[in-house]
From TrEMBL:
Keywords from the named record: NADP, Oxidoreductase
Segments of skewed composition (Polar residues): 1-29
Pfam family, one: adh_short_C2
Domain of life of the source: Eukaryota
Signal sequence range: none
The name this protein goes by in its record: Uncharacterized protein
Gene Ontology molecular function: oxidoreductase activity, acting on NAD(P)H, oxygen as acceptor; oxidoreductase activity, acting on the CH-OH group of donors, NAD or NADP as acceptor
Amino acid sequence: MVQAVSLESSGPGNGHFNGTSNGQSNMASESPVPVLSTQPTSETNFAITLKDKVVAITGANRGIGLGIAEVCLANNAACVYSLDLSEPSEDFAQLSKRHPGKFKFLQMDVTNEESVKKAVDSIVDAEGAIHGMVCNAGMTKHQPALDFSMAQVEQLFRLNVFGVWTCATAAARKFIELGVKGSIVFTASMTSYRPNRAAPSAPYGGTKAAVRNMAHTLAMEWAPHGIRVNSISPGFVRTAMTYFVDQTPDWDLKMKYYGGMPRLALPQELGGAYVYLLSETASYTTGIDIPIAGIVGAW
């Protein structure tokens, strides 16, 4: 059990601060130092669980988002919503069948402010609350910088940055309205730290750097409301967008000299970090980024 820590003391030899050479304290005896207690309150729950939590995940019909949803449901989330523009995949249907009534789909365009607001309102109308928003929807395009058209660059920023902004602000407004100390988690990328030599995309890396920085600033602004904002930076994850990465002829050679885990991650391997950040266990964790890359992530 954690013990209370007291800074109050009296008499010589007991740790009382003595600021003079003649044994007289320069601290007024009538003003005792307050006791600092690290004793948790009776309401504190240190279990990493999403029990009773309603979580929305953008782009969860497939890929990383679906993997996050699976791990959230495995950790007792009351309900998980996939907010996606595309229709649900077969994998979505299978996961929904395994969790009847707990994994739901709302069609939503993350780049459309009214669409996002409507989806968040619909969740609250149906479930009575919303506690977590995972801003995960995004896209990439890997090619040399000089091959990008401005339209392609704008598309990446519109979805990966503006979409995250729209969903985060909509969630924060709803949290404040409901008095919920909610959690917002962004999916950033290891390319927000350094270039991806295996599959370069300067615009994509720029979008993810913007997302990671945005998380820090929003965390600072919304901390007075009890809203936490964090991000996660995956490395290479096995999805429809990255299936080719470990099929290149020089993959084994790169891994030999780079070190780390010489494989792609499964989407579900990211889920534990999202669950932690969405849970009450992370109640004092905000404004951070968690890299999950097996060291191999981006080089």
